[in-house]
Amino acid sequence: MNNKTHTLTATQIACYANYLYEQERAESTIRKYRHDLAALLAYLGTAPLTKTVLIGWKEHLLQSHAPSSVNSMLAAANSFFAFMGWPELKLRPLKIQKALFCDEQRELTRSEYIRLVQAAKQQGNERLSLVLQTICSTGIRVSELRFITAEAVASARVEIVNKGKLRTIFLSDKLRRLLKKYLQKEQRTAGAVFVTSSGKPLDRSNIWRDMKALCQQAGVAPGKVFPHNLRHLFARIYYTLERDLSRLADILGHSSVNTTRIYTIESGLIHARQIDRMGLIVT
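Above: the chain sequence. Below: its structure as tokens.
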């Protein structure tokens, strides 16, 4: 085994983060990579960085993280090693069998989504009701909500810049009518549609907290209620109607249809009903 010794420092991690910034990587990606490398640094303590130690770190992660999370952290480390010119330290990702069905305990259903929207309205939180409908009817990331502006509502086109890519999405007439009415009520004609009391665009934490407050009234398990699940619901419904994975990837802003395919996985219960409809059981 190659056991060449290296030293990992906070300064190196900071230099790598700056490199990612110059490569115009997403802020969330940079933040995650820094977090994962900081976890590796904490694990090392005063120990040198060797392949043997890294294999131990990988085994350590498996004791407290899901395999997909472990692979995500290994990817961050491998990217850093490539940046540093240490290819001999690269770690093999775990082999994870492709999931055939999604977990019904985590995926939001259409009826549950509707109950969340209704609960927001009943609580008098019109802004949250419209946020839910905007994310779910467009498939945007919660971080992209700031691109939903008064100007975009007027033109029906939203120009989104994320991860170094520009894509255009269209707003439905129904959504535009709702947003125009909301903007008129708020007496705003420019800038982000959804803002805080201080005028700043809503961020992930604002929306996550408000969504969790709907769970009990809507009768939806808290584990299903987070912004990204709205994006998943959009993808599943779109794919059910259109069966066009490539087009869906473009709409979602994915570089690979393999990522999009994860979003369209159906539940085991739906699959079972489809099998029943085939009518192949004779007796």
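The radius of gyration is 22 Å.
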